[in-house]
Design a protein that fits this description.
Length: 306
């Protein structure tokens, strides 16, 4: 949720090409309508008003989740979305800030009635992580099934798949493509492009400076992209003398994002996974614009929808 003043700032700047999120409401029941909901716009910083990174794409009544940061199930409640009926979850990469909510998604959905295996897709290592999580919660699983709760046997199961780049999901008009992006040296990380009957969405995940997304994001309805404002974090980061280098190479500086967006021309650019936490909205947007993008930009807040 964002504060009144933040909402007011968005309203004031709407005429300058800054986008306002849609008002809070339950997901549309229209069969093909597609809505993007920011479940968490945060980073590893444990700030109380930004949940861990997670984005929902809702197509009619179908719920797809991209990354599962800390607090994801509570954020589903906050967005008036189902805690149980999740068609699939996709992970951009396995950094802890993007996966700490994965056991939440697995077990909370089960406790509240999930019967079918949760479908999970992500880069190499997701299956092993899933197996370890199920093993780690073995005593809880045992207690809930054998105890007075009588939890649904097998309802906690996950069908996890390590996927290669390309189209990894194609069902009833919803197509999801994984695109390799640079982020963790030696490990895969993906952005995702989602095409539905009515809209196209690209979610960058964590991504270093690169042109690789430009052809995939060209003209899309919504580009959800991470961003780091280097001038705002210098001298403030834990992690030693290489922390600045890491931030510049593993994440996308504001002016670089502006340049990418200027070439891709998304109809709406949504900033999420915003570094630093608590960044000034207008300064951040101006810094992105310095890269040359003149289109609509939204500074994402948890539970905003587009
Ligand atoms: Zn991250
Ligand atoms: Zn990361």
């Amino acid at each position: 949720m964002h504060s009144f003043s933040a909402g007011l700032a968005l309203a004031i700047t709407a005429s300058l090409g800054t986008a306002r999120p849609l008002p809070a409401q339950p997901a549309s029941s229209s069969h093909d309508s597609t809505i993007v909901v920011l479940l968490g716009t945060g980073t590893p910083v444990p700030a109380p008003h930004t949940a861990g990174p997670s984005t929902a794409v809702i197509v009619g009544k179908r719920l797809f989740i991209f990354d599962a940061g800390a607090g994801v199930e509570r954020q589903l409640s906050g967005a008036h979305l189902s805690n149980v009926d999740i068609e699939a979850v996709f992970f951009t990469h396995l950094h802890s800030d993007h996966t700490l909510g994965y056991p939440d998604l697995i077990f909370t959905s089960w406790v509240f009635g999930r019967r079918a295996p949760l479908k999970a897709y992500g880069p190499r290592g997701l299956r092993a992580m899933t197996d370890h999580l199920i093993a780690a919660f073995a005593s809880d699983i045992d207690a809930r099934i054998k105890g007075p709760e009588g939890a649904i046997k097998g309802g906690y199961l996950v069908r996890a798949r390590d996927v290669s780049p390309g189209v990894i999901y194609d069902s009833a008009g919803v197509k999801v493509r994984a695109i390799t992006v640079p982020h963790i040296p030696g490990q895969p990380a993906y952005a995702y492009r989602i095409d539905t009957p009515t809209r196209s969405v690209v979610i960058s995940g964590d991504i270093g400076p690169t042109d690789v997304l430009i052809p995939w994001a060209r003209g899309v309805d919504v580009l959800v992209h991470e961003v780091v404002k280097m001038s705002a974090i210098e001298g403030t980061m834990p992690g030693g003398k290489d922390a600045g280098y890491y931030m510049r190479t593993a994440h996308t500086p504001t002016n670089v994002l502006g340049s990418i967006a200027a070439r891709a021309q998304p109809k709406l650019l949504v900033l999420s996974h915003i570094i630093p936490t608590g960044a000034d909205e207008q300064e951040m947007i101006a810094a992105v614009r310095s890269g040359g993008f003149k289109g609509r930009i939204a500074f994402g807040h948890d539970l905003d929808r587009y």
